[in-house]
Amino acid sequence: MNPRTIGTVTRGTTNPNRLRRMDRWIAATFAAQLRRTSDPIAVDLGYGAAPWTAVELLGRLRTVRPDLTVTGIEIDPARVAAAQPYARDGLTFAHGGFEVPLPGGRRPVLIRAANVLRQYDEAEVAAVWERLRARLAPGGLLVEGTCDEIGRRHVWVALGPEGPRTVTFATRLGSLTRPSDLAERLPKALIHRNVQGEPVHAFLTAFDRAWATAAPLSTLGARQRWAAAVRSLRADGWPVTDGPSRWRQGEVTLAWSAVAPHA
Q1: Residue 256 lies in a domain
Q2: How far apart are CA 130 and CA 167, in angstroms?
Q3: Using one digit for the tens of pLDDT, what is the confidence trace for 94-118?
């Protein structure tokens, strides 16, 4: 391993379509910046033992920016070698870690780091975020989060060069008993903070309460119930930043400040 490579090898678990919810959110909410950027390169950081997520990221983002390119970066050289047969026009694979090595000093407009920080200590997250944000192009976006093995439940944080902006909770609604089921997929910055007195615990508790209140709407379907619960959260003062078109996807996004851990 290159001594300048920063990070440790992950489990590498991956499945086709695992990150579809995250990818679709990026394509929908970050489309304007993807279209504006003069150097449309995205990074799939820590894609794992198989390159499916990088292949899929290219396809989904090219619906927004047809000349966008993706570089999959992995810290395990064997995984990089195994991915090379999948390289194509606009898709490359490289050995590296949190230093995000790109040729010619290029800076990506997007870094997606899914299921990478789960094995790290919570105390390490802020430094990793800072390092990755420093690699972004002006106006770029870092999306870091966690999902289950088949992509039914996700929680991710969106960060700009200045720091964390939002947190998104996303799920296949048919798999959900209550919104707090998503707690098991909180990213590393939050998963140990789902305890009494912490903001993320207060949010999930409020979400469960709103979900229960909206139970009569379950006869109209889980989407209607979810949307009603989110409207209730917004009415109660939670800083929800998206609208019904995203809620219908089984998502809700709110300002990071609403769940940021206490120091």
Answers
A1: no
A2: 17
A3: 999 999 999 998 999 999 999 999 9
Secondary structure (H, E, C), 177-229: CCHHHHHHHCCHHHHCCCCCCCHHHHHHHHHHHHHHHCHHHHHHCHHHHHHHH
Q: Write down the residue that tokens 């950081």 correspond to.
A: 45
Q: What is the pTM of this model?
A: 0.96
**Burial level of 104, CB count in 10 A (0-12/13-18/19+)?**
exposed
Q: How many residues does the chain have?
A: 263
Question: Which residue segment(s) compose the domain that 195 sits in?
Answer: 173-238
CA distance 191 to 79: 28
Q: What is the pLDDT of residues 222-258, one digit of tens each?
A: 999 999 999 999 999 999 999 999 999 999 999 999 9
Q: Report helix, strand or coil for 176.
A: coil
- Residues 153 and 181 occupy one common structural domain: no
Tell which of 171, 203, 227 closes a domain.
171
User: What is the CATH number for 114?
Assistant: 3.40.50.150
117 and 209 within one domain: no
